[in-house]
Amino acid sequence: MARIAGVNIPTNKRVLIALQYIHGIGPKKAHEITEKVGIPAERRVNQLTDQEVLQIRETIDRDYMVEGDLRRDVQLNIKRLMDLGCYRGLRHRRGLPVHGQRTHTNARTRKGPAKPIAGKKK
């Protein structure tokens, strides 16, 4: 099992799919990485040599922000918005949708489970 950027990559999947298990790498970046290293798209992780795994690891470390660094950067950006007190920061602080979605109905993911209002009978 290959370990890249602190994540165990599944061995029986293709390299393009397996790289997407790393936070911050999607289909486009996975394709870029395999192009840079020179690995064919249909190759599986268990067919990679140690040298190729090392090249992938070095490419990701050098060119991309992934996993812990990316999560920390996103959290710092959200904290900065909250400290500024801008509209988006206030929405984050209150746990409401940030991108202009309606909240009269829906938005249950951000707001949490529905709370019944006491004394509202007919």
UniProtKB/TrEMBL annotation:
One cellular component term from this protein's GO annotations in UniProt: small ribosomal subunit
Sorted UniProt keywords: Ribonucleoprotein, Ribosomal protein, RNA-binding, rRNA-binding, tRNA-binding
Binding partners and assembly: Part of the 30S ribosomal subunit. Forms a loose heterodimer with protein S19. Forms two bridges to the 50S subunit in the 70S ribosome.
Xref: Pfam families: Ribosomal_S13 (PF00416)
Gene: rpsM
InterPro entries with a match to the protein in the record: Rbsml_uS13_C, Ribosomal_uS13, Ribosomal_uS13-like_H2TH, Ribosomal_uS13_bac-type, Ribosomal_uS13_CS
GO molecular function: rRNA binding; structural constituent of ribosome; tRNA binding
Family: Belongs to the universal ribosomal protein uS13 family.
Region of interest (Disordered), ranges: 95-122
HAMAP family referenced in this protein's UniProt entry, alphabetically: Ribosomal_uS13 (MF_01315)
Lineage, broadest ranks: Bacteria, Pseudomonadati, Pseudomonadota, Alphaproteobacteria, Hyphomicrobiales
Gene3D superfamilies named in the record: 1.10.8.50, 30s ribosomal protein s13, domain 2
Record has Acyltransferase as a keyword: no
Protein name: Small ribosomal subunit protein uS13
